[in-house]
């Protein structure tokens, strides 16, 4: 269970990181070298990480002429919470910043709880690349792409939708994008089959964020016609939360939603498309959509690195302890 006092990044933090990301992509990574001159050694603790996380941290460190050290655990599932916290506490004494990714394979939400605890015991700034509930770096990556393509997302109609596929990834990127897009002033529509609904806590945070931002948050369970007015669509084939411990059941529930497929007939001519790579051509979206200029997923890795560098820079300049 996720604690009710779950810590989330503030709207000013998210907006500042996207602003810095744009500056980095415009001026180059040398623009932050002076700010980050004291960040020499980057520690990396990854468990249950997404496929690209190691590459992203390696590229980020190389761009900044830093050294990244893998100090994670091969046996995390067998370690007690106290042992993991002591390891994080000890590791933080030896590096300048910590990057973590932690997703539990046993209990959904456990990775989120541990990530919050990691930040509490770390003596250096800690950035969570993702856990099993939230993936703020993914959200910042997508927002950077949308801001660059649309000239800003405030006032735009963004759709976050489940899409048909066979990969069934963690919904954390969609969870975070939903909340972050609302915080940036976009109207957001969440489209999910009843069988693949979002975590209730995330939906409550989204409703609260929409009221604070004075924007519209809608939830629908029908795919047909739901994307027609979208300025941008983010689609992801995430797994059923109810079958977290039985992933083999996902295909049986998904087979009746084969028509949850993004092509030229479901989105407008100027609608921007995004997903988390690798995109499943012919399942999640048509090859024509994926090969077109409207698909900003081709810039995903570039934006991921820029967003992570911007996050590190924000934390160093603002003396913020954690970005989780």
Can you describe this structure in just a few lines?
The protein contains 10 helices and 10 strands. With 324 residues, it is α/β, with parallel strands linked by helices.
N to C succession of SSEs? HEHEHEHEHEHEHEEHEHHE
How would you state the average pLDDT, rounded? 95
Strand content: 5-15%
Number of helices: 10
* CATH fold-type name of the largest domain: Rossmann fold
What class would the helix/strand composition place it in? alpha/beta
> How many strands, what sense, and barrel or not for the largest sheet?
5 strands, parallel
Helix proportion: 25-40%
Give the strand order of the largest sheet, numbering strands 1, 2, ... along the chain: 2-1-3-4-10
At CATH level 2, the architecture of the largest domain is 3-Layer(aba) Sandwich
Radius of gyration: 19 Å
The number of distinct β-strands equals 10
Highest-level CATH class of the largest domain: Alpha Beta
The shape, in one word, is: globular
The total domain count is 2
Q: What would you give as the CATH superfamily of the largest domain? A: Aspartate/ornithine carbamoyltransferase
Distance between the termini: 17 Å
Which stretches are poorly predicted, pLDDT < 50 over at least 5 residues?
none
């Amino acid at each position: 269970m996720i604690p009710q006092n779950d810590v989330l990044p503030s709207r000013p933090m998210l907006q500042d990181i996207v602003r810095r990301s744009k500056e980095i992509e415009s001026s180059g990574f040398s623009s932050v070298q002076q700010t980050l001159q004291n960040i020499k050694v980057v520690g990396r603790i990854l468990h249950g990480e997404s496929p690209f996380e190691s590459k992203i941290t390696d590229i980020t460190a190389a761009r900044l002429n830093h050294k990244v050290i893998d100090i994670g655990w091969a046996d995390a599932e067998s370690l007690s919470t106290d042992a993991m916290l002591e390891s994080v506490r000890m590791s933080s004494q030896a590096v300048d910043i910590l990057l973590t990714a932690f997703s539990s394979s046993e209990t959904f939400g456990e990775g989120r709880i541990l990530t919050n605890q990691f930040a509490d015991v770390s003596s250096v700034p800690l950035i969570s690349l993702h856990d099993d509930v939230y993936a703020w770096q993914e959200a910042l990556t997508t927002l950077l792409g949308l801001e660059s393509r649309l000239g800003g997302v405030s006032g735009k109609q963004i759709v976050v939708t489940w899409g048909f596929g066979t990969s069934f990834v963690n919904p954390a990127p969609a969870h975070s994008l939903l909340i972050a897009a609302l915080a940036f002033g976009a109207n957001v529509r969440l489209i999910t089959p009843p069988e693949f609904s979002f975590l209730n806590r995330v939906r409550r945070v989204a409703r609260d964020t929409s009221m604070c931002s004075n924007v519209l948050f809608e939830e629908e369970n029908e795919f047909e016609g739901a994307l027609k007015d979208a300025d941008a669509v983010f689609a992801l084939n995430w797994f059923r939360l109810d079958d977290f411990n039985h992933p083999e059941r996902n295909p049986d529930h998904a087979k009746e939603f084969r028509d949850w497929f993004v092509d030229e007939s479901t989105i407008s001519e100027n609608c921007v498309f995004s997903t988390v790579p690798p995109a499943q051509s012919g399942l999640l979206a048509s090859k024509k959509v994926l090969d077109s200029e409207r698909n900003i997923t081709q810039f995903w890795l570039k934006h991921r690195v820029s967003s992570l560098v911007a996050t590190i820079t924000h934390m160093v300049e603002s003396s913020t302890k954690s970005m989780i």
